[in-house]
User: Which sequence fits this backbone?
């Protein structure tokens, strides 16, 4: 191949060539063959730009001037578009691969645009199939009926699903039972002496992860409330060790809350002493208190602990047919017994809310729980009167 006789075009030059040809075709009213001739001339110009990668597509000046067709584009399984003059239906050969079909349609759209046709009116039909008749301007009553049924079917699929009336009634009945039980329990608790109420306090703590994997827990926040839900203590705790997992999505603790320079937070020893003073001679109420006391590095008399996670009526067996009793989540117990929602998924936990909810949960079963403990102290079995 003699490179001295080769002509190379830039993208900008090729774009100008296309514009000139389109203007000439619109002015002279060229037919389909002329548009096909110009497309192959453009393909020849495109081949010069890719000379370094595909030498087989090179053409000399004589081929470009004469407008010879590129056989590699047209000899691929006799791919030739049959465009009818009366409509915009294009027959696609049936023996093409998906890749070849895509290229065939692309070339057909380009030729149609060169003739001044709109792409929206082009319709491809596989060879051997009968094209669908275009819809009339005024559809008949039957067609209107069919369209109406189709629209109704679509609208049915788009309708939102609503709860059944039976489910709503059962939920209302369950909520009514819970309200009645709570009202009875509230009247009983209101009759308690103030000295009896002062014996109980609730506690809840939030932790962050330390260590290489962040699985070891360190105290980051502590909250203590009384019988009426009043906050006795709520403080963040400065963590001296490097925190590898703040667990913000659960604990709600952020780096600034427990930073060493945060003067509003307490040191671990300071928080430990403050909580220890509040626990003195008190009955401790909480959920999974083993974790909270371990983080605080405190201990409490077993007889003065009311752990709702270890209360058997609140636990459930591990298997379907029974087995070891396992504790349940606090949010599930609160929703079941009180009809309230806490620890909503996607929101951070609040230690104050958890402590208050644990105390309200304890109030529901306080009378029964205390009687069982008194029976154990007196050496009387649960089945005897």
Assistant:
């Amino acid at each position: 191949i003699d490179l001295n006789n080769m002509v190379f075009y830039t993208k900008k030059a090729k774009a100008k060539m296309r514009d000139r040809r389109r203007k000439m075709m619109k002015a002279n009213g060229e037919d389909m063959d002329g548009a096909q001739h110009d497309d192959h001339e453009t393909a020849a110009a495109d081949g010069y730009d890719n000379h370094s990668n595909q030498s087989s597509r090179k053409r000399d000046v004589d081929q470009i001037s004469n407008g010879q067709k590129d056989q590699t584009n047209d000899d691929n399984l006799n791919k030739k578009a049959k465009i009818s003059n009366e409509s915009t239906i294009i027959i696609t050969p049936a023996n093409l691969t998906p890749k070849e079909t895509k290229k065939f349609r692309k070339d057909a759209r380009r030729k149609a645009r060169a003739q001044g046709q709109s792409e929206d009116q082009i319709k491809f039909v596989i060879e051997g199939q009968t094209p669908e008749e275009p819809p009339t301007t005024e559809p008949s009553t039957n067609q209107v009926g069919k369209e109406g049924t189709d629209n109704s079917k679509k609208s049915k699929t788009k309708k939102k699903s609503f709860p059944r009336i039976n489910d709503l009634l059962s939920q209302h009945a369950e909520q009514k039972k819970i309200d009645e039980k709570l009202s009875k329990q509230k009247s009983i608790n209101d009759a308690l002496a103030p000295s009896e109420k002062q014996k109980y306090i609730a506690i809840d703590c939030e932790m962050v992860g330390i260590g290489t994997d962040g699985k070891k827990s360190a105290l980051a926040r502590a909250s203590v409330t009384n019988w009426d839900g009043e906050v006795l203590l709520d403080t963040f705790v400065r963590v001296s060790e490097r925190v590898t997992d703040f667990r913000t999505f659960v604990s709600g603790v952020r780096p600034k809350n427990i930073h060493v320079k945060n003067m509003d937070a307490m040191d671990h020893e300071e928080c430990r002493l403050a909580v220890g003073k509040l626990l003195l001679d008190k009955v401790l109420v909480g959920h999974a208190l083993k974790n909270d006391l371990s983080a605080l590095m405190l201990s409490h008399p077993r007889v003065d602990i009311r752990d709702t996670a270890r209360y058997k009526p609140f636990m459930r067996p591990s298997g379907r047919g029974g087995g070891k009793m396992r504790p349940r989540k606090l949010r599930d117990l609160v929703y079941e017994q009180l009809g309230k929602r806490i620890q909503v998924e996607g929101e951070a936990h609040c230690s104050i809310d958890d402590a208050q909810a644990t105390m309200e949960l304890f109030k529901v079963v306080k009378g029964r729980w205390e009687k069982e403990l008194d029976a154990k102290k007196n050496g009387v079995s649960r089945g005897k009167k």
Remarks:
- The first strand starts at residue 82 and ends at 83.
- The CA atoms of residues 198 and 227 lie 7 Å apart.
- Confidence is low (pLDDT under 50) at residues 40-45, 47-85, 133-148.
